[in-house]
Amino acid sequence: MAKLKDVKKVVLAYSGGLDTSVILKWLQVEYGCEVVTFTADLGQGEELEPARAKAERAGVREIYIEDLREEFVRDFVFPMFRANAQYEGLYLLGTSIARPLIAKRLVEIARETGADAIAHGATGKGNDQVRFELNAYALNPDIRVIAPWREWDLNSRQKLIAFAEAHQIEIAKDKRGEAPFSVDANLLHTSSEGKVLEDPAEPAPDYVYQRTVDPEAAPDAPETIEIGFEKGDPVSINGVRLSPAALLTKLNELGRKHGVGRLDLVENRFVGMKSRGVYETPGGTILLAAHRGVESITLDRGAAHLKDELMPRYAEMIYNGFWFAPEREMLQALIDKSQEFVAGTVKVKLYKGSASVVGRTSPNSLYSMAHVTFEEDAVYDQKDAEGFIKLNALRLKLLARRSQRR
Q: Which of 36, 168, 251, 324 has a beta carbon 3.0–4.6 Å from 283's, enabling a disulfide?
């Protein structure tokens, strides 16, 4: 097995679950190195202090547990939503957008602690290994990365459990059997993959959904909320200003109540295979609808259409792990410029799984009732349309005449 023989200290992205607990011990045994653990609170909704206790019992001396929720939403989620980013037209990139922040802190902690390398628990089949490592290398080209799933022979849950038992690693009782599915969660979303979800022909069982009520069981009465925007970012709900993380938390609560934000998707992974995932993004789904609503009256047609053309490329960059790449940063500058006048208030009606824009106002609105009215007006001469049509029809007429001559 190839090793970095000179590794003395490694910073491990650590959750305290079975996989990363085994990785912690495996690094100590196989590499004979000191392990620093880093656990990020991105709003996954779990108590993180048990991870500290487990790391301490494993002999870890440097333990980092950090609340990164505000930074996550402010510096990663909100910039992404300015672009209305959706991978393959549907996926709101909840897992993808969390990886650059985790990679950033891994690299920073490695520098702070004098560590030789970083390590993660992503498997060799998925996208996360690529995201962690590309983002890390973009920030420190000399960083060394250990990816145990690409090195060890513990390629089944039974082998992981056997290793854990052999080394007296605590295992949660619900991890002793085959996990029904794999879950990743943060403040933006919950994703579920594998096991009972592997056959895309089979509907996801009800118990897979964790963040939203069944839309059929949601309240029978709709609820309308108002979201305020400044420079493309949401700043308030129903007139109450909130911090980025608090605002997304509130939208999640509202979306959960009304069953908003469920997605059952077969997507194309960067590594080449297709995979089926079940996503729940309640607050993000509301935010996307509201943001497009305020853009509809504040963005010029050319700017709006250009953004829509660029969005799939931007979303793909995030999905594939290129958050810190120059092309993403270049597009972000363009997107942020487009948001200069994107301000106002949007009314969104939440009802049994849907989030529908029902009203929008802005001090920067380009919507002119004087121009679009069906009544008599003094600002638009309808005769002007004749020349406009003739000029646009000219090339079509020439093409048609050529075809008639054949």
A: 251
Q: Which one is catalytic: 157, 176, 182, 292?
A: 182
Q: Is 182 a catalytic residue?
A: yes
Q: Order of strands across the sheet with 240-241?
A: 240-241, 233-237, 223-230, 344-351, 354-361
Q: Does domain 9-69+95-179 have CATH number 3.20.20.150?
A: no
Tally of residues, the chain: 406
Mean pLDDT by 10 residues, the chain (406 residues): 72 92 94 96 90 93 97 98 98 98 98 97 93 98 96 86 89 56 91 93 95 98 98 98 98 98 97 95 98 98 98 98 98 98 98 98 92 80 93 96 92
> Tokens representing 383?
């005769």
pLDDT of residue 172: 67
The pLDDT value recorded for residue 149 is 93
Catalytic residue, chosen from 69, 96, 105, 128, is: 128
DSSP state of 231: T
The full DSSP string for 21-82 is HHHHHHIIIII--EEEEEEEESS--S--HHHHHHHHHTT-S-EEEEE-HHHHIIIIIHHHHH
Annotated catalytic residue, options 69, 82, 99, 328: 99
CB 290 within 8 A of CB 229: yes
- Give the whole-angstrom CA distance, residue 326 versus residue 322: 8
Spans of all domains in the chain: 9-69+95-179, 184-361, 373-405
What tokens were used for 180?
């029904």
pLDDT of amino acid 296? 98
Angle at which helices 18-26 and 157-166 cross, to 10°:
60
Q: Which CATH class name applies to 184-361?
A: alpha beta
Q: How much of the chain, in percent, has pLDDT values that exceed 70?
A: 97
> In this structure, what DSSP letter does residue 87 have?
B
CB 294 within 8 A of CB 343: yes
CA distance 324 to 135: 6
Residues 6 or more apart in contact with residue 133 via CB below 8 angstroms: 103, 120, 145, 147, 321
